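Customer escalation, tier 2.

The customer says the design service returned an amino acid string that "doesn't look like it belongs to this structure." They asked us to rerun it and document both sides in this ticket. The original structure tokens are below, unchanged.
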């Protein structure tokens, strides 16, 4: 064998040996990659499972959000809404207090707090809160509506009319405000104005059952009264 052939043979054996070494060294790397991928999948799967558990309902979701972000007003506002939807009005008030403490301009938290006070029959407390809302947001229609609801609970019908009129001014199709306006007019003996307001409540909110009920009760009452006068 010539020197040239011997050199080529040596090079081929060296390349073959290097290839085997590379192939052997790549096996541990592939195992490491596989282990990393499996670990990531397991971690992601566990996190997803935990998050699904947390998100089983709005309440647990927002309690989790508050726990993780205790300095965010929005987190407490969301928790407040969840409490309201569950009829837990005292808890909604406390969540609202935390929300406005962190952000004194959080008018939605104030408004929901007032609504919670109203559901508990604490109308005077609701009025105090709503007046704060209207200082920050003087054009907030729903705050005027809730103010009307609170005055209605206290039997202050002139104030109901004023608050409901402001709610309608800022939101002309506010069916619930028209309903409150109608009730206040009727209780003050202004039947024509009351009927007109209730008809507008039905016009703007055809699903507003309470407006239909109020109007039906009025017509039934007037029918009974006419019958009494005729007897």
């Amino acid at each position: 064998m010539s020197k040239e052939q011997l050199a080529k043979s040596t090079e081929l054996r060296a390349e073959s040996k290097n290839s085997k070494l590379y192939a052997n060294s790549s096996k541990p790397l592939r195992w490491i990659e596989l282990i990393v991928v499996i670990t990531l999948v397991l971690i992601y799967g566990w996190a997803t499972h935990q998050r699904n558990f947390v998100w089983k309902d709005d309440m647990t979701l927002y309690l989790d959000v508050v726990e993780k972000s205790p300095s965010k007003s929005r987190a407490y506002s969301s928790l407040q809404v969840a409490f309201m939807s569950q009829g837990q009005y005292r808890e909604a008030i406390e969540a609202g207090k935390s929300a406005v403490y962190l952000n004194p301009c959080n008018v939605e938290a104030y408004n929901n707090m007032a609504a919670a006070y109203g559901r508990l029959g604490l109308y005077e407390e609701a009025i105090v809160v709503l007046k704060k809302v209207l200082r920050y947001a003087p054009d907030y229609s729903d705050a005027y509506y809730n103010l009307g609801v609170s005055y209605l609970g206290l039997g202050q019908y002139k104030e109901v009319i004023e608050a409901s009129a402001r709610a309608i001014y800022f939101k002309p199709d506010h069916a619930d405000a028209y309903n409150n306006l109608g009730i206040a007019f009727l209780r003050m003996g202004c039947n024509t104005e009351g009927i007109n307001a209730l008809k507008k409540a039905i016009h703007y909110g055809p699903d507003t059952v309470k407006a239909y009920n109020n109007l039906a009760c009025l017509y039934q009452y007037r029918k009974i009264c006419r019958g009494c006068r005729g007897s």
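Tier 2 assessment: The sequence is consistent with the input. The chain has two domains: 52-138, 156-231. Residues 19-23, 40-56 have pLDDT under 50 and may be disordered. Sent an explanation to the customer and offered a walkthrough call.
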